[in-house]
Design the sequence.
């Protein structure tokens, strides 16, 4: 489930994203409290150089324990708990 974004920040460090170039994105949950959740994201080019970073703060007060929430595997690729709604899309 989702809530309202209270802060979104993005900083672009250097040019990237040319045709056929891969960019790696890594995001982590910095913390989740009773009302707010905090995330941080970094984007790196093929050489591993930082090209952009950002953060996101979201109000989650009424959504933290919602029954339709899901949990993902450590790599973020698979739903391991809850209903994967993408399984229903053909």
Sequence:
């Amino acid at each position: 489930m989702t809530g309202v974004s209270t802060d979104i920040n993005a900083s672009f460090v250097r040019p990237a994203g040319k045709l056929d170039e891969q960019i790696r994105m890594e995001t982590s949950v910095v913390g989740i409290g009773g009302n707010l959740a905090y995330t941080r994201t970094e984007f790196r080019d093929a050489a591993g150089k930082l090209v952009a970073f950002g953060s996101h703060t979201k109000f989650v007060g009424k959504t933290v324990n919602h029954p339709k929430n899901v949990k993902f595997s450590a790599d973020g690729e698979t739903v391991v708990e809850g209903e994967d709604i993408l399984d229903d899309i053909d």
User: Anything to note?
Assistant: Strands lie at 4-12, 24-32, 36-44, 50-59, 71-72, 79-81.
